[in-house]
Amino acid sequence: MTETYVAYGAMQELIKECVRPGDYTIPQAQEKNAEIPRDETGAHLGVATGWWYDTLGLAPTFINWAQITFIHMYMLQVRFRMFPKTHAPIWIQHLTNHAFYAAEDRLVVWHKLHSNSIRQKYLKDMFSQWRAVLLSYDEAIVKGDAVLAAAIWRNLFAAKEDVDFEKLAQIVGYMRRELQRLDRATDDEVANGQWTFKGDPGEIEGIVQMPSKGLSPGRAG
């Protein structure tokens, strides 16, 4: 029971760290009778800054926020699997629970979705995406960077053709770097709730100037 309380408390902070890179706001949601902007697909469009939006060029939407958050959740989950076998499932479950608490809160505060049935549809879709992310990234971590790039391309970019493959390679490098940092950290350094991800994929630019042959468009599918 003690481990459950520890995990719950730490995860309140750790999920904030997972959410932070993809965070966005929708100012119109705080204005009376204001209309929330939409993108070409009809999704609510927010306002955000940071590498994932300014440099990578993603639109600040709920689905993009979820996928950026998933990347960081995944890296933590990989580390939680290294906890003692009686503790790991508890931490993984709290990670998932807190992510969906954060998602539902976002849907209410910034998207004004006050209908529980509509929110549950969004959350059900999000959970399906999370399961797909876990499967694809788990396979990729074992099979190599080209497979990881393809998985990110499918999940984060929805397999769009006009992807900057150099930036895709930077995300791969970023994930590998952060997974290594987590691997080197002690259980206590992760479990105290103070873990932070370092920088953003743009810091990998000097290392990954050009994608390898395995990351070329012809191999990404």
From TrEMBL:
This is Ubiquinol cytochrome-c reductase assembly protein Cbp3. It holds the Pfam family Ubiq_cyt_C_chap. Belongs to the CBP3 family. InterPro entries: Ubiq_cyt_c_chap, Ubiqinol_cyt_c_chaperone_CPB3. One of its GO terms (biological process) is mitochondrial respiratory chain complex III assembly. It comes from Periconia macrospinosa. One of its GO terms (cellular component) is mitochondrion. Residues 55-197 form the Ubiquinol-cytochrome c chaperone domain.
